[in-house]
Amino acid sequence: MAHSWHIRVSGLVAGFALLMAGSVTAGPENVDFPANYAGTYVRYTTVDKPDRDPPIIRFLYINPDALVKARPGEPLPHGTVVVMEDHEAELTEDGEPRRDADGRFIPTHEVTNVFVQEKQPGWGEEYAEDKRNGEWEYAWFRPDGSRRDDQSMDACFECHRQVADQDFTFTTAPFITRIKTATED
C-alpha cells in the first residue's frame, strides 16, 4: 500500500514538472541580446525622433529568417526578432539636429540604447489582458549587450498596444506589406 502511494506522488511530481517545463514565465529575461545583429540582420528603416531630448535616430533591424517567412497582412512568425538601435543626432552649433540632403537627421556613430522585441509561442500568456501584446516580449540593453534590468518594459507594452492591428509593431508589419507586395507585382 505504501508503495502505491509513493508511485502516485511520484507521478504527480513528474506531471507538475512537465507542466512547469512547458510554461513560459513572462518577462524581459526571456529575450537575449542578438549578438552581431548589425552584421547579420536586415536594417529595414530608420526613424527620426525629434521629440526626444536630445533628438535621436532609431535604426530598425529584423532577423533574416522572419523576413523570409513573413507574409503581408498576417501576424509575424514565431521567432521574429526586431532590434531598435538608438543614436543621438549630430547637432549644429545652435543645438538643432544636423540634416542630410533628404532632410533626415544625421546620426552619431555612438549607439546609446538597444531595444529588442521578440515573438515566441506562448509568450505573453501570463500577462493581464490589458497589458498583453500577443506573444511578444521586450528587453532593453546597453550598447555592450548587457541588460538594463533597472528599466521597466511597461512603456513598451503600453505604446505597442496602439498597433495591435499590425501585430504590435509600428514599422515591421507595414514594411513586410510594402516589400512583399512590391516583389509579387
Report a brief summary of the structure.
The chain has 185 residues and is of the alpha+beta class. The chain has five helices and five strands.
Could you characterize the architecture of this molecule?
With 185 residues, this protein is of the alpha+beta class. The protein has a single domain, classed as Chalcone isomerase (3-Layer(bba) Sandwich). The protein contains five helices and five strands. The chain has a five-stranded antiparallel β-sheet. The longest helix has 21 residues, at 2-22. Mean pLDDT is 90; it is low at 9-22.
Strand-residue fraction?
A: 15-25%
Structural class: alpha+beta
CATH architecture: 3-Layer(bba) Sandwich
Described by strand count, sense and barrel closure, the largest sheet is: 5 strands, antiparallel
Written as H for each helix and E for each strand, in order along the chain, the element string is: HHEEHEEEHH
Averaged pLDDT: 90
pLDDT under 50 segments (min length 5)?
9-22
CATH homologous superfamily heading: Cytochrome P460
Q: What topology, given as strand order, has the largest sheet? A: 1-2-3-4-5
Number of strands: 5
Shape: globular
Secondary structure layout:
Layout (H helix, E strand, L loop, with lengths): L1 H21 L14 H4 L1 E8 L6 E7 L1 H6 L11 E9 L17 E13 L16 E6 L12 H7 L11 H13 L1
What keyword list fits this structure?
alpha+beta; 28% helix; single chain; 185 residues; 5 strands; Chalcone isomerase; globular
